[in-house]
Amino acid sequence: MRAPGIGMVLDKSDLDGRVFTQTAGKSIYEPTSYTANIVFTKRDTVTDTTEVGGTFNASYLLPTALPITVKSGVDTVNRRVNNRQVAPRRWNRVAAPGGPASVLLPLEEFSLMTLTRFEEQHGGQRLPVFDPVSVNDELSNSARWTEDLNYAATQPYTSRRIMEEAVDAGYLQAQARFFGRLNVLGGVRVENVKVDTFTYVKYRSTAVAVEPDPVKRAQIDYGAASSEGEYTKYFPSLHVAYDLTARLKARASWSTSYGRPTLAQLVPAISFNDTAMTVTAGNPALKPQLAKNIDVKLEYYFQETGVFTLGLFQKKITDYIVNRGGELVPSGPDNGFEGNFGGYTLNAPINAGSAEVNGWEADFRQRLSFLPGLLKGLTVAANYTWLETKGKFTGTTELRTNQVTGFIPRAGNLRLLYNYKRWGASASLNFTGEHIITYSATNVAALVFRRDLTTVNLGATYKLQPNTTLYVDANNIFEEGPDRYRYIPSRPQSQTWGAMTINFGVSGQF
Q1: What gap in Å lies between CA 321 and CA 371, rounded to an integer?
Q2: Are 156 and 59 spatial neighbours (Cβ–Cβ below 8 Å)?
Q3: Burial of 2 by CB count in 10 Å (0-12 exposed, 13-18 middle, 19+ buried)?
Q4: Residue 33 — φ and ψ, nearest 5°?
Q5: What does the pLDDT look like over 91-123, one tens digit per residue?
Q6: Residue 72 burial by CB count (10 A; 0-12/13-18/19+): exposed, middle or buried?
Q7: How far apart, in whole angstroms, are the C-alpha atoms of residue 231 and residue 351?
Q8: How crowded is residue 87: how many other Cβ atoms within 10 Å of its Cβ?
Q9: Which ranges in 93-244 belong to alpha helices (H)?
Q10: Which helix (H) or strand (E) holds 92?
C-alpha cells in the first residue's frame, strides 16, 4: 500500500512510540489515504534430482626396492535436475469502499508495538502495518478476492528448468616413500562433461481479445528453448610430505582444482528486448572455473592428542565466470530458440576473467586430557584464515581485495567439545569478516558490502549403542543474520535476522 504526497522528518527521541514526524500530505494513519495492492500467492517449488553413478578403483604395489603403489580408477555420474512449480495460484484483493480499513492495524494498537531491532539500531521510520489476522480472516471471502487465472497459466512455463549432466572421469596416481621420511604422491584426473538444458521462453504476447482462454494463450505465447555444451579437462597434482622430527611434519603441494557453474548460470530464465535486439540466456557450454594451487604447511603434533598447523597458500584462478555480451544469435531453426532472435546480441555468462588469492591459515586442535577429573573430556579447536585477492574481469583494470566479490578476507571458528561416558556436548562460534557482495566500476552507489557476522551454535548427544546416537543441535541461537550496506557503513541496505533452528534425531552406522 502507499499514501501519496507524504512528507516526514526523523525524530530519534521516539515520542509517542514513533520515530518520525509527518510534515506534509495525507495522514499515514488514515486508511482512506491508501490504495490497496494486496496479493495472496500459493505455490510449491519442487526440484527433483535423479542421479545414477558408478565407481571402479584398483591399486597395485610394484615389486621394486622402494615401496611404490600405483592406483587407477574410473567413475561416472549422470544426473537430471527438474525444477518446476506445482499448482501455482494467486489472488488479488478487491479494494473495499473507503480504502482497505480492515487490513490496516489500528493506530491505538500500532502505538503500543515495540520498536524493531532495525529501528533501534538505525532510527528508521515507524509506519503503519498490515493486520495479518484481518488478512487471514478475509481469505475465505470470495467477494474480497479475485483469482489471477493468467498467473496460474503462465507460471508452469516461466519456472520450468531442466538440466541433464553426464560426468565421466578417470585418474591415475602413484605414491612412494623415500628414506623412511619423504612421502610423494602425484597423479592426474581427467573429466568429460556433457550438459543439456531446457526451459520455456515467451516468444510472443497474444492479446486477450484474440484468445480469451489464459491456458490456450500461454500455449501460444511460450515455446521451448534447449541447448547443449561439452568440455574435457585435466587436473594434475603433486603432494610432498616430510617428517622433520617425530612430531613436526612439513607438507608442500601443487594441485589443480575447479568449481562448476550453477544451475542458474547454465539455464536461467530467458528474457529479450526487441528494441535493443538483445536476449539474455544461460550458457550450458560454460567451463568450470580452474585454479592452480600452491600450499606450504607445517604441522606439529602434541604429546597429548592434538595438532597445530600453520600454512601459506596461493590460488590462481582462470576461466572465471562473468556476465558479458557480444555474441550474435545465429539464424535458423536449430539456434536454441526455435529459430527466434536471429541476429540479436546474446548476453550470457562466459569464462573470461582471472583472479589470484594469497593468504595464510592457522588451525589448532587439542584434547585436554591432561586436566583433572571431569575436565579430561574437553577438546578445544580453533582456526583462522586471512586472504588477499586481486583479479581482472573486464579490460585491463586490476581489482583488489575490497573489489573482488566471492571471497571473504577474514574468517574464523572456535569450538569446544565435551565427552563423558555416553554423553557429549559442543559449542561453536563462527565468524566471517566484512566483504563486498556487489561491485560496479562505474557507480559507487551500487557497491554492496556485508558487515562482520558472528553466529553461535550448541549441541548435545547421547550414545544409545556403540553405533547409535541421539543428537540435538541448536543453530544460530542469537538469531544473527547478514547486515548489508551500500558504499559507506552509514547507508544500510538490508538487515536480516536468521531464525534459530533446532535439529534432533538419531544417527547410526549399520
Answers
A1: 51
A2: no
A3: exposed
A4: -75, -10
A5: 887 765 444 444 455 544 544 455 565 556 655
A6: middle
A7: 13
A8: 10
A9: 107-111, 117-122, 132-138, 149-158, 214-221
A10: strand 68-93
Q: How far is CA 277 from the centre of its chain?
A: 32
Phi/psi-derived region of residue 102, left when phi > 0, alpha when psi is between -120 and 50, beta in every other case: alpha
* pTM as predicted: 0.68
> What is the residue whose three cell numbers read 527521541?
13
Q: Which helix (H) or strand (E) holds 12?
A: none
**Which secondary-structure segment (H or E) carries 265?**
helix 263-266
Q: Which residue has the cell 528486448?
A: 273
What are the residue ranges of helices labelled H in 343-422?
A: none
In angstroms, rounded to a whole number, what is the distance separating the alpha carbons of residues 71 and 272?
A: 51
What one-character-per-residue DSSP string does 414-454 give?
Answer: EEEEEEETTEEEEEEEEEE--EEEE--SS-GGG-EEE--EE
In whole angstroms, give the CA distance from residue 352 to residue 322.
6
Q: What is the pLDDT of residues 316-350, one digit of tens each?
A: 998 888 766 566 777 776 666 666 777 878 777 88
Between helix 214-221 and helix 149-158 the angle, nearest 10°, is 30
Residue corresponding to grid cell 489471477: 148
From the centroid of its chain, how far is CA 35? Answer: 36
pLDDT for res 395: 63
Q: How far apart are CA 185 and CA 180, in angstroms?
A: 14
Distance separating alpha carbons of residues 23 and 8, to the nearest angstrom: 5
Give yes or no for a contact between 128 and 105, defined as CB atoms under 8 angstroms apart.
yes
Residue 276 C-alpha cell reads as 535493443
Task: Provide DSSP, 211-223.
Answer: ---HHHHHHHHEE
Rounded Cα distance, 296 and 308, in Å: 14
CA atoms within 13 A on the CB side of 126: 26
- Spatial neighbors of 262 by CB under 8 A, at least 6 apart, are none
Q: Which amino acid is at 280?
A: T
Distance CA 483, CA 432 (A): 12
Distance between CA 232 and CA 285 in Å, rounded? 11
Question: What is the pLDDT confidence band of residue 456, given thresholds at 50, 70 and 90?
Answer: very high
Nearest CA-CA partner of 368 in 304, 316, 299, 423: 304
Amino acid, single-letter form, for residue 40 = F
Let me know how long the chain is. 510
Give the three cell numbers for residue 213.
482462454
Looking at residue 316, its pLDDT comes to 93
